[in-house]
Amino acid sequence: MPIKIADSLPARAILESENIFVMTEHRATTQDIRPLRIALLNLMPLKIVTETQILRCLSNTPIQIEVDLIQTKTYHSKNTPEDHLLTFYKTFDDIRDQKYDGFIITGAPIENMPFEEVEYWDELVRIMDWTKNHVHSTLYICWGAQAGLYHHYGIPKYPLPRKMSGIFKHHVLFPKEPLLRGFDDLFCAPHSRHTEVHASDIRKDDRLRLLAESHEAGVYLVEAMNGRQIFVLGHGEYDPDTLKKEYERDLAKGLNPEIPLHYFRNDDPSDDILVTWKAHAHLFYTNWVNYYVYQTTPYSLDKI
User: Fold this and answer.
1) 44: nearest Cα among 178, 209, 237, 219
2) Residue 134 bears catalytic tag
3) Positive or negative CA dihedral for 212, 218, 221, 226?
4) What is the DSSP pairing of strand 186-196 with strand 158-172?
5) 142 is catalytic
6) Domain of residue 195, CATH code
7) Per-residue pLDDT of the chain (304 residues; tens, 9 = 90+)
8) Pick the catalytic residue: 142, 177, 188, 280?
9) Would residue 244 count as lying in a domain?
């Protein structure tokens, strides 16, 4: 797909090496069409890794997409080079007067903190409220999904007795839903979190629709506002080795982590990784871009 990103963004070289079509700013200006405008609010500490993962997942449609990378102003990342942030990232102040076809809010490794104690919570609340009038469809991921469900609908999160880490099977509840078009009855997806939301809380709220869940990992996919809000409690965008790196990081810190479930062959960390989730992850993002953004967004962004 022609993802329109800055010519010098590090993700460009990585994606092109994977034979993914990335459109440079120069080439994009020669096409007489309106690209979709999607912004990515990146709350993860390793921003280059996360932006590359998300851009890769947006790579399977022929639609030209113009991507803006957003960071919080309240909290400044210590794990991403300053020159990268200054060159490629904007803050909410830079975009508050703009409108977008799509908006993505990532997760963040802060699940054990109460929402109101997160340093940038007030800023995130302003952004989430802003999306309702400035964005056609907003996609919330993992902790971002928990934050969105809590702020918009009062859905609480609950601590888990141990970290939910691994690849889990999920079942589709509404196979005719466009977001799940082409999915198998069972599909795999990664989870990596210390908290959860309960399906019973989702089902009590008529404004929310539970689309997919796992017997082992719980809620996976929730829809609201006829697709204008999508909440994903897992990490389909993860690279094959992301959970391995998290596991090894926690081992090095002496945290005695459990081995990610259903991830290594024979559940042996010294063995190969079984990649069982990428096809459905790409299909999910393709469906979101096509059916929930491109097919329904107004041609004039001013009408959002």
Assistant:
1) 237
2) no
3) positive
4) antiparallel
5) yes
6) 3.40.50.880
7) 455 667 777 777 777 776 565 655 555 454 456 889 999 999 999 999 999 999 999 987 778 899 999 999 998 777 788 888 888 999 999 999 999 999 999 999 999 999 999 999 999 999 999 999 999 999 999 999 999 999 999 999 999 999 999 999 999 999 999 999 999 999 999 999 999 999 999 999 999 999 999 999 999 999 999 999 999 999 999 999 999 999 999 999 998 899 999 999 999 999 999 899 999 999 999 999 999 999 899 888 888 8
8) 142
9) no
Q: Per the structure, how many domains does the chain have?
A: 1
Q: What domain range is 200 assigned to?
A: 3-159+172-238+278-303
Length of the chain: 304
In a domain, 268, yes or no: no
Q: Which of 134, 152, 235, 280 is catalytic?
A: 235
User: Which of 65, 69, 77 has the alpha carbon at shortest distance from 8?
Assistant: 69
In a domain, 265, yes or no: no
Smallest CA-to-CA distance from 152 within 111, 110, 213, 205 is with: 205
- Choose among 168, 169, 115: nearest CA to 143: 115
- What is the token pair recorded at 101? 């076809």
Choosing from 51, 196, 213, 237, which is the catalytic residue? 237
pTM: 0.89
Closest CA to 248 of 234, 259, 239, 238: 259
Q: Which residues define the annotated binding site for substrate?
A: 163, 192, 249
Q: Which residues are annotated as a binding site?
A: 163, 192, 249
In sequence order, what E strands does the chain have?
A: 3-4, 22-23, 36-41, 65-70, 89-90, 100-105, 135-141, 158-172, 186-196, 208-214, 218-224, 229-232
In a domain, 252, yes or no: no
3-state secondary structure of 56: helix
Residue 224 contacts residue 231 (beta carbons within 8 Å): yes
Q: Is 237 a catalytic residue?
A: yes
